[in-house]
């Protein structure tokens, strides 16, 4: 096998999705710890500082209210080269959070064992399903009181609509958390909390049939476990690698990220089960990652990393082959050849300039304002385009007006550029021109970012009037539909995007179903595609 193929084969590029506070940051840190990418010496306080450094490393951006970064952390573990894509959460949840998933080959879903499936997980999960990527579940915080594991399985299956296959099974929880049972090896690993969660735990493993189990986990827990194993073996889906790869079956693991329990086992299994870089569809067929010719697509644009220069960084996912600094590539959508100089890569805390990168990796390149989300880069004599990145449904809408009418031009330039970066989406009234602008965002923080940036970068003060709509739908079969004749509901509004695509806004979710019912033949979609 060539060196390039070997490099690609060992890559694993995945995103961790979760609802805020489920333990995504903690789990990421533990992965980095095992990979030796960070060194968490010290106490919990040290952990906090490290957490800050790792996941919130763009502190300057944050101070300015522009924390819209999904960073990538690369490290090596057990012969694999791992790229973790960090999906921004909390207040900076934005369209970038969704787009990050377009660059991943699989997803790890972290669920808080006491809470189960939560709102943000559902949203992110839908994007994974759309991409049909494998989804692995880590049920976290088993050292705390947790819900019944069968109930959690049911909830994942019913709410998310994916079948589950527990790889291990918890024995008790909270104060009575005894450990986990490995269904394949038929062994029990007892729970020991690592000191302050800093070090690897020294676990002990017992044969479930062994005589000493009763004394380790207690007679009652042992009996309960045997009953549950019987139930699981009878009722749970069997592990089936094909179904996992197609995203139809999620392997489930239980553990406690904070105390390091079950984290390394999870990582080991996960790396074996998940996929090396996946092929991607283009206008002319499928591009295999192992093709030696370089190709990549832009999935994220980060504005103004350096305010003095008003520059942007375009993040691209390498789809095939090897990237070398300074190489000449064809920017297909721009119709130009260019040299990618000074490519950057994120390595845990640091950003560094890289000389080479391979399919599966993410690099950031300087963007003088030429790239758009979804653009293709390939070797200079080629011309295909990767399948576009869909536009994700904003959930907050506002009418935006510039206060000084003389600054119309700057205003339009500002909102258009910010929209091109993918931070906001802009719409117009359905029947009028550009005079009224409606902005849609996935996370409300983006409104603040917009106001701030228009004022600071474009010198335009604006007034935002929030609108009550929360649901947007693209009309999939727009060619067949006369939009003005759609039988609407009283809370429905017709709008269009800058490419004149018609869209519908709704205040209530049930109105969406109502409008579909009233207009047979109308096909609505939660994702926008060009
Ligand atoms: P997030 O990135 O998904 O938002 O979650 P994060 O890792 O920041 O974890 C949220 C809180 O849950 C943190 O507590 C963290 O310590 C705690 N946590 C994570 N994993 C576990 C676990 O396995 N068991 C228990 N008991 N707690 C866990 P915090 O008090 O908000 O922050 P900190 O003071 O610990 O930094």
List keywords for this structure.
single chain; seven-stranded mixed sheet; 33 strands; eight-stranded antiparallel sheet; 530 residues; binds guanosine-5',3'-tetraphosphate; alpha+beta; 26% helix
Layout of secondary structure:
Elements: H1 3-9, E1 11-18, H2 24-34, H3 44-55, H4 59-63, E2 72-77, E3 80-86, H5 95-100, E4 106-112, H6 119-131, E5 135-140, H7 149-160, E6 163-166, E7 168-171, E8 179-182, E9 187-190, E10 205-207, H8 213-217, H9 219-235, H10 241-245, E11 249-254, H11 263-273, E12 280-282, E13 285-287, E14 295-303, E15 312-320, E16 322-324, E17 328-331, E18 336-339, E19 344-347, E20 350-353, E21 356-358, E22 362-367, E23 376-379, E24 391-392, E25 396-402, H12 408-420, E26 425-429, E27 437-441, H13 445-457, E28 462-467, E29 471-475, E30 492-497, E31 502-506, H14 509-518, E32 524-525, E33 527-528
Parallel strand pairs: 1-3, 1-4, 4-5, 5-11, 6-11
Antiparallel strand pairs: 2-3, 7-8, 8-9, 9-10, 12-13, 14-15, 14-23, 15-22, 16-21, 17-18, 17-23, 19-20, 24-33, 25-27, 25-28, 26-27, 26-30, 29-31, 29-32, 30-31
Guanosine-5',3'-tetraphosphate (G4P) is lined by residues 18, 20-26, 48, 51, 89, 140-141, 143-144, 256-258.
